[in-house]
Amino acid sequence: MGKSSDTRYIFSAGDLYQKDFSIAFRKEDGNFYIPIKDTRELYCFNDITLSTKLLQLLAKAGIVVHFFGYYENYIGTFYPKEQLLSGRLTVAQALAYEQNRLQIAGQIIKGIAKNTYFVLYHYYRHGKSELKDFLDWLRKDVSRLVDSVGNIKQLLRIEGEIWARFYQSFRVFLPESFAMNKRVKRPPDNPINALISFGNTLLYTKTITQIFHTHLNQTISFLHEPAERRFSLSLDLSEVFKPVLVCKTIFDCVNNRKIMVEKHFDKKLNYALLNELGRKVFIEAFEERLNQTFEHQTLRRRCSYKQAIRLDGYKLIKHILEGKNFVPFCMEDKK
Amino acid sequence: MNKPNFNYAIVFYDVGEKRVAKIFKICKQYLKHYQKSVFRGHITPGNYLELKNKLKKAIDPDHDFITFIQTISESSFHEESIGNTGVSPESIII
């Protein structure tokens, strides 16, 4: 049975065009019809031609299209004209950046620590006692450290330390072929770095789509510098989801031998790039995780992890406009 | 009282030759083309009403026949298929 998903990943080369007020994809071995009302996002990984007529239709339907280059590098997003504009919120968001940045960024870092703790505790409980030091540090010291800092640079240093120690702990529970010494980006230099980079890119684009459906301004961020040329708020909001969505998908794929170094990575590039089969396995596992639901403790109903990203956006809005405490998604409390 | 929230639909139609293409065009905006005259897929209750009303206008009620089956999700029914479909219309990777 097919899995329901409002996302399509296009890996074949072909033309994407508009037909009968819906989307059609023409490739070598026939046409493929994509229902417009059941689509939120398209990911283009190959050589794809599209027309403005299609873009017009996509803009009307509010469908976001992400483009990727030959090496899975993120090129950009077709971002339809904003439907949800709110001057009031934009002004308030900028004010919050001026006055409240440290507090919001601090909450995000506490969120990262909590979710990392949640992910690693599973392995600790199953006998990996080497993790104890790091877990204690995450639980006790991080929130104290975060509360004591006076500027954003120091906060970023704490964040860096969390990630560095988190990545180092991988060798405790991952097989040797996926061991990791150091996080290397642009380009990643070994399989595990490649998986993390690819996963983070997917999560980043997912978050862009979710923020698109809120009134938030994508360029005003709190933890990351609101630099030009990219949607830095999406980097902020995706941060707390990295351990629970990206890393857990990786652990699942690697430890259950769904992804293997010889089979799913490009040998020519020193195993630093997923090959086509590898990408498919990873994307399927990642989509499944995003669409998985849990019982939301405040809303008292089931909600998927994808929705949880959007809910984090709403929480931020509530914080900015109404002064309600901003506590990012936490795996333990399920809210 | 508590009406379940139907989020998945299967539509099969049996319509006059003249109107087949018309029905096909309407359905493919909302659902995935599963078999020759069968569509199915995830659909919101609002979109479902929209689809139903559009189809209602397009058919000739004396001769045509369309059935909608609504379920909670694709995991709430069991299904068995034999033969080869070729390209699966529901795969997330194209």
UniProtKB/TrEMBL annotation, chain A:
* EC number(s) on file: 3.1.-.-
Alphabetic keyword roster = Antiviral defense, DNA-binding, Endonuclease, Hydrolase, Magnesium, Manganese, Metal-binding, Nuclease
Q: Which cofactor does it need?
A: Mg(2+); Mn(2+)
Residue ranges of the TM segments: none
* Enzyme kind, highest EC tier: hydrolase
Q: Does the keyword Repeat apply?
A: no
Q: Does the keyword Transferase apply?
A: no
| Gene Ontology MF terms in the entry | DNA binding; DNA endonuclease activity; hydrolase activity; metal ion binding
Question: Per its UniProt record, what Gene3D superfamilies does this chain match?
Answer: CRISPR-associated endonuclease Cas1, C-terminal domain, CRISPR-associated endonuclease Cas1, N-terminal domain
A single GO BP term for this record reads: defense response to virus
Q: Which domain of life is it from?
A: Bacteria
The UniProt annotation places Mn(2+) binding at 159, 224, 239
Q: Which family does it belong to?
A: Belongs to the CRISPR-associated endonuclease Cas1 family.
How does this protein assemble? Answer: Homodimer, forms a heterotetramer with a Cas2 homodimer.
NCBIfam families with a match to the protein in the record: cas1, cas1_HMARI
Q: Which PANTHER family match?
A: CRISPR-ASSOCIATED ENDONUCLEASE CAS1
Biological function: CRISPR (clustered regularly interspaced short palindromic repeat), is an adaptive immune system that provides protection against mobile genetic elements (viruses, transposable elements and conjugative plasmids). CRISPR clusters contain spacers, sequences complementary to antecedent mobile elements, and target invading nucleic acids. CRISPR clusters are transcribed and processed into CRISPR RNA (crRNA). Acts as a dsDNA endonuclease. Involved in the integration of spacer DNA into the CRISPR cassette.
Name of this chain's protein:
CRISPR-associated endonuclease Cas1
What is the organism of origin for this protein?
Desulfofarcimen acetoxidans (strain ATCC 49208 / DSM 771 / KCTC 5769 / VKM B-1644 / 5575) (Desulfotomaculum acetoxidans)
From TrEMBL, chain B:
An annotated Gene Ontology molecular function: hydrolase activity
The family database entries (Gene3D superfamilies) matched by this protein are listed as: 3.30.70.240
Per UniProt, where does Mg(2+) bind? Answer: 14
Q: Which cofactor does it need?
A: Mg(2+)
Note the InterPro entries from the entry.
Answer: CRISPR_associated_Cas2 (IPR021127), Virulence_VapD/CRISPR_Cas2 (IPR019199)
Q: Which SUPFAM superfamilies match?
A: TTP0101/SSO1404-like (SSF143430)
Enzyme class, broadest EC rank? hydrolase
Pfam family, any one: CRISPR_Cas2
Keywords, A to Z? Antiviral defense, Endonuclease, Hydrolase, Magnesium, Metal-binding, Nuclease
- Please list every transmembrane segment annotated in the UniProt record, as residue ranges: none
Q: Which GO terms describe its biological process?
A: defense response to virus; maintenance of CRISPR repeat elements
Enzyme nomenclature, EC number: 3.1.-.-
What this chain does, per the entry, is described as: CRISPR (clustered regularly interspaced short palindromic repeat), is an adaptive immune system that provides protection against mobile genetic elements (viruses, transposable elements and conjugative plasmids). CRISPR clusters contain sequences complementary to antecedent mobile elements and target invading nucleic acids. CRISPR clusters are transcribed and processed into CRISPR RNA (crRNA). Functions as a ssRNA-specific endoribonuclease. Involved in the integration of spacer DNA into the CRISPR cassette.
Listed under subunit, the entry gives: Homodimer, forms a heterotetramer with a Cas1 homodimer.
| Membership in a protein family | Belongs to the CRISPR-associated endoribonuclease Cas2 protein family.
Protein name stated in the entry: CRISPR-associated endoribonuclease Cas2
Q: What organism is the protein native to?
A: Desulfofarcimen acetoxidans (strain ATCC 49208 / DSM 771 / KCTC 5769 / VKM B-1644 / 5575)
